[in-house]
Fold these 3 entries.
Entry 1:
Amino acid sequence: MSGYRKLGRRSDQRKAMLRAMTTYLLENGQIKTTLSRAKEVAPIAEKMVTLAKKNDLASYRQALSFITKEDVAKKLFTEIGPKYADRNGGYTRVVKIGPRRGDAAEMAIVQLV
């Protein structure tokens, strides 16, 4: 877990939220969220892709312990990992998309490159 943004949550809620967002990002390729959440999710997703590149049982189980859906973990190791096999890091991109209408929170899109 990255330790510097608390995101207005207790640690258990924060971890659950980041797990869910990482799972959704790996499942769909991109998510739209606030900038601070995006900056927290990106490095976690990068770590998951790095695990998938190792492609052994230990790293699969390590990824499963964080990702909430088993089919997303399978997709991570069969499709996403091999796709980035020749790339050294930088698997995600955070793009700012301006303020949210309701509360003017800075919004961003996190996507797998």
Entry 2:
Amino acid sequence: MTLLEGIIATVLLALVAVACLDGTRGAAQLQHRSQARLDALVTAEAALDAEALDESGMVRSDAVRMTRAPYRTAPRVGPTRAGLVRVDVEARTADGSVVRLSRLVPAAGFTTARGAPR
């Protein structure tokens, strides 16, 4: 093998190694972002569950924002559905992305179909 062949083989091997390392870095970065979104989703789901059970004081965090509004068939139009409240939860990740979840829950004092208080 000549010196020129050795240099070309070394350069090609270095390029392949750089491409592999870049792919590994991208995969690790994607996994980190996915884990952060999953954590925010779990936090938002816990907040929604606590709100549905009237235990909203259990979930307190600066990263979670919760709003309640009477449920309407369409925004600003149509009748309000009696006894239902739309709960919106926004959970922020460390990188600033937001996970938004919504759920319809019975309003306070609303009774079930059988007439028993919830």
Entry 3:
Amino acid sequence: MSSLELVICVCVMAVVAALLIPSYITFTQQSRVLALVLPRLQQLESNIALFYIFEKKLPSRHDLPELMNGIDHENLDIVLTGGVITLTILAPDSASKVHILDGTTMVASPVIGPVAISTWHLSGELAERLGIDN
């Protein structure tokens, strides 16, 4: 292999790396946020679904402390209005792994079936950025 071929090969690899590294970083950040948000959101959704089954109504903001019992909400602001969850990322510290998403919001709205909550509709900037909006 001549030195010119080697230089061309190194240049091609550098271009490919320059294109792939930002995608990898974005994917890594999305994974961190999903690991932070989704388990907590799913726990809260389950608690609300159980509340709905037993109480025959959606919980209000006054029920939130009871529904959040045992759920870690660090870096999250969670508001409950008529069974609709509004979750906002709170990460003002630039050293935080999710700082780039500080202030972004996701809304989880229950879809009520004949007897219980059948599913949840996710929307908002955070849901869009994570690719989980529906």
